Amino acid sequence: NVLEETLHLLTQSSFYAREEELRQGFITLAGGHRVGIVGRAILEGEHIRTLKHIGSLNIRLARQVVGAADAVLPYLVTEGAFLSTLIVSAPGCGKTTLLRDLIRQVSSGVPSLGLAGHKVGVVDERSEIAACYQGVPQNNVGPRTDVLDGAGKAEGIVLLLRSMSPQVIATDEVGSRADIVALEEALVSGVRIIATAHGAGLHDLKERPFLRELIGRHLFSRIVCLGTARGPGTLEAVFDGVQLTPVADLRNKKGKEIPDGPETRRCPTIGLRHREHWLPHRT
Fold first, then answer.
1. Alpha-carbon distances, residue 281 vs 18, 42, 54, 131, 194 (angstroms)
2. Which residues is 60 bridged to in the sheet?
3. What's 123's domain CATH number?
4. pLDDT, tens digit (0-9, with 9 covering 90-100), for 34-55
5. Looking at the chain, which terminus has fewer C-beta neighbours within 10 angstroms, N or C?
């Protein structure tokens, strides 16, 4: 099988020693690159134990966008304090890219905004934020950031609270009731939150039961919406998380220049098209 041979080369023949990653359908390589995998699922009870007879690979070459949060961060800081923030967009619009750079900047501190560096705990369930390889983050997530790699969000948030004394906790793609309970526990402990959720916008969140509850409980002071109005990664608006009123409409705001083909456009995007490349491979 050519694909299995490819995997053995990519993983230096440690393919079958990485069953925990295989169970989740991907492996992480040095440099933060990831290989999505599908094939024959080997079950243990009702759960996937591993995969064999690999049928397809999806090789994702990671590229971090430093400065992705520059346009939005001023709306997330008040009097030197970072505000709990939820990032909302449809798939492929740059939620994780923006989340990663927010983590980096909050961890490092931003003197121009009066924001001191914070201790940040990251629950990286699918290794997409820090892209840890053998425990070492391959992406720059800041000097004061502790990463819990591969743990479920709800359990991971509680673990970080108990063991790492974070000032900010960040995680990707919240949406279950267990996530909400864990986020509330963190907020009651005085910890700020950065999280993402799938949705076409604020109206879409209100149609989904768990996310409607997330908003209704006012767990976030700011809600950032991303879209595709001027290409993937466009910063659409920032909402007050309690009043649900716009804090800023960024659709017509000029941003830094981002090359896009033969022309250069000005718009507040996070450079999603330059974040990574997707190389699908099939038999």
1. 21, 22, 11, 22, 34
2. 34, 278
3. 3.40.50.300
4. 889 999 999 999 989 888 888 9
5. C
